[in-house]
Amino acid sequence: MINFLKVSFFSLLMVGGFWGFSNFGIPQIKPAPPPVEEKLDLGAMTMDQFIALGGKIYNGKGTCTLCHNAMGRAPMLDKIGTVAPERMKDARYKGTAKSVEEYLHESLVKPSAFVVSGFGKSGTNDTESPMPDVTGGGIGLNEAELAAVIAYLQDSGGAEVTVAIPAMEAPGAEAPAAAEAAPLKTPEEVIAKFTCGACHKIAGQEGALGPDLTKIGKTKNKEYLRQALLDPEAVIAKGFTGGMMPPTYGEQMKAKELEMLVNYLAGLK
Question: Is this structure's pTM higher than 0.70?
Fold first, then answer.
């Protein structure tokens, strides 16, 4: 009886110790607040300020430097002003641009119009770019932000800045409310819309910037996967750096789409 009481007391002590450590000893992860969209007062901006805004977006929200850097994941853009005309004359060019400005716009929204040799998706013979359309998915640049990035690239890439600062809407003018899109029906549609394959190996895509997700359900549960989508900075996968994955999927995905993607990932075993 005495031994039973000792074991019971010891067990309760251990349970209480683990409970106290888990609740007070481990730092609590608090998700970062959702980003607030920056209000752009375009009517008061000078061109220098507009270019600076483009640089801020290029290095921040646009996530451009994740690939366009000295590590060689994507072409450097410091000489885009001189190389763009050459690329438009290349036999492999599939676009319609006639100027550096048009080429940059095309490269941002239709990146497969021209793929620099050695930087295409694996197995496509440099005919398909791994880069997503920056106006969609997890990046979602609007037209003003897109124009600012183009101005920045022209300025930093040795080209004449030809972009005009977008005009402000007339006072009282309101854009018509867009009809809410219907929820996507399959996890493959979610993966395609949010360009997960640009960074991850998943659903036949060969991204290599983020962790391989082809068997992620074997080692990670739904709670972990859901947190990784909603708060990607909470836990950084070993061998990778933070700041690579957009933190806005929680605001961009519908709840049904998020849970469908979580269930799909959990089933990859």
Answer: no
